[in-house]
């Protein structure tokens, strides 16, 4: 059985009822329940309309200004948690509603990437290594290059997880990286 009858099907049901068909016969003809035809008939007799009532549903718990305050807070404090953002902005919704509002505004929650930036000594060692093998084709023929390195040191990852709210941009954007201390 269809969930809702189209307006044309409802008009057909009314026409059949006006031809003195019974509710059961009309329901069987349209392959719907008898109660469905009963309510169509009741609406037609009372209000002379075939359209269904449009329902509004539950309203939003926050205003546009409250949503904007939440977004503004996250723009200025991208490493704050949703709980802290909700408390600071006095957002009236639940934690889940707060997360939904931020997602609707184009933010996503992620774990901030930790990247160790090169020291001067490290840079010099890399240049020295490259200069040593500058002419050695035999060495470079056995090297595979890949850009699939994640910028997270596994040993330090679980020790220093920090959340970050970021706009939908590249995960390795410099604004969302937290420098790590080299051991």
From TrEMBL:
GO molecular function, one term: DNA binding
Family annotation (InterPro entries): Homeodomain-like_sf, RNaseH_sf, Transposase_Tc1-like, WH-like_DNA-bd_sf
A Pfam entry, by short name: HTH_23
Xref: Gene3D superfamilies: Ribonuclease H-like superfamily/Ribonuclease H, Winged helix-like DNA-binding domain superfamily/Winged helix DNA-binding domain
GO cellular component, one term: nucleus
Any one of the GO BP annotations: DNA transposition
Transposase Tc1-like domain span: 69-134
Entry's localization field: Nucleus
Record-given protein name: Transposase Tc1-like domain-containing protein
Protein species of origin: Aromia moschata
């Amino acid at each position: 059985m269809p969930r809702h009858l189209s307006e044309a099907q409802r008009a057909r049901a009314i026409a059949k009822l006006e031809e003195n068909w019974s509710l059961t016969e009309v329901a069987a003809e349209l392959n719907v329940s008898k109660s469905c035809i009963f309510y169509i008939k009741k609406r037609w007799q009372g209000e002379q309309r075939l359209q269904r009532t449009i329902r509004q549903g539950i309203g939003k718990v926050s205003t546009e200004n409250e949503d904007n305050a939440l977004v503004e807070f996250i723009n200025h404090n991208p490493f704050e948690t949703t709980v802290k953002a909700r408390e600071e902005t006095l957002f009236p919704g639940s934690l889940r509603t707060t997360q939904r509002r931020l997602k609707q505004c184009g933010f996503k929650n992620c774990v901030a990437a930790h990247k160790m930036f090169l020291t001067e000594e490290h840079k010099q060692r890399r240049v020295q290594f490259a200069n040593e093998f500058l002419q050695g084709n035999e060495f470079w023929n056995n090297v595979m290059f890949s850009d699939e390195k994640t910028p997270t040191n596994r040993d330090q990852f679980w020790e220093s997880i920090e959340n970050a709210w970021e706009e939908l941009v590249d995960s390795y954007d410099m604004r969302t990286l937290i420098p790590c201390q080299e051991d």
